[in-house]
What does this fold into?
Amino acid sequence: MKVLQLLMSLTCLMVLGLFSGCAVKVERPIETPFALPTSFSDSGSSALSGKWWLAFEDDALNKLIEQSLNDNFSLKSSWARLSQANAVYKKSSSGLFPTVEGDAGGSHIIDYKDGTTVKSDKLTLGLSASYEVDLWGRIDSEIEAARLDMEATAADLDAAAMTLSAEVADTWYRLIRHKASLELYDQQIKTNIKALDLITTQMRTGQVPIADVLQQRQLIESQQGEKAQLVSEMGQTEHRLTILLGQVPGIQNFEVPAEIAALPDLPVTGIPAELIRQRPDIHSSYLVLKAADERVAAAVANQYPSLRFTVSLETINGSASSLFDNYISSIIAGITAPLFDGGLRRAEVERSQGVVEQALSEYGQAVLTAVGEVEDALLFERQQQQYIHSLEAQLDYASLTMEQLKERYLKGIENYQRVLTALTSLQSLEQKLITAKTDLLLNRVDLCRALGTGWDYSKKENNA
It folds into this structure.
């Protein structure tokens, strides 16, 4: 059939496109604008898997994180952004192929003149194809930039999942701290009420002044007020955790233990150069930088002439059976070259180069921030462990002091003010120890997030 000639012409256009891919494109290596240290300040011996939370051996935490990764709405939004980026890449890739369009039409004309009626039919069929030969690699650079954008969006999704898992763990362990503190407040209030009963009895027998009773009552009321504030904080923390799980606050109830989880072994921190490859947010910054570099190449190529081929076939006849008896076909080649644009294209090159410089700085900042986060977490852990040891020693001394002062007070040879001061110090240290152990645990969560090991969440099937 005559249409075969058109198909052969289209084949020629695609062959020309293949030859156009020979345009030279220089790849520039992208490196960090500074030297990285050969190691971090500390490292453990425990390997950290992609599901870092498994190291905490907390079944409740495991379920919470898995639920959040499936149901969190912010993460679903990141999935939607990845879907958009995939579509943009597919759209850009269409520039590698010819654009083929077809049109068809028909008309039935009745011409009445001087008492004579003349009827005529006309059928029209047209087919056209156009193709731009990528002489200078502009289309290829635009496609590559779109691909890199898509991969950067996938890395952003991994980073969002990494951050979400850390937020869930952080919120869960804060919830446990609140529960442990509340139970401790209950114990302390009961102890102080017993002490109040004893002091009241002594006051009634004239052994101690009424001021001792009033001070003890004030201490109990103070703790009741602090407990009320803590109940409010615990409720808000539960609401935050529920939202992270993609649920309506106030519906889901949590079985919260009152014991602070044990700290896992310190993981292997590796070397900073590995951190750059592991962290999805850094990888995203790197891909954005590469995409910006590709767009510079596209802007430069856009200053040069473009070559476009157009192939068309049109046939017109009065009946379908004889439609291809007569036809018109054409092949048109055209070169378009910018002669004067007021500096528009040159300005676009300069703008694209500025974007590269900005992306390079942002990439460098992302690397520095990541290394700093790891070092901050390692430093905090070392000092926090010393702080906990100090609190435990202080608590031992405070307990001994309290026992000594209590005996002296009951014998009537010690002022109650010293007893009250020792009691307040002892109970404050007990609360501080709970907070300090929780902060150490939360810092370990931050360290695991900062190391960013093994995140390939975007590669799983989207069941959202």
